[in-house]
Amino acid sequence: MAGADLQAISLREVNLTGACLREALLCESNLFHAILEGADITAARLCHTNLINANLRNADLTAADLTDAVLKGANLEGAKMNRAILHGAILSGATVFRTNFEDADLRWADLKDCRWTPKPEADTDYILS
Question: Which CATH architecture does the domain made up of 1-116 adopt?
Answer without folding.
Answer: 3 Solenoid (2.160)
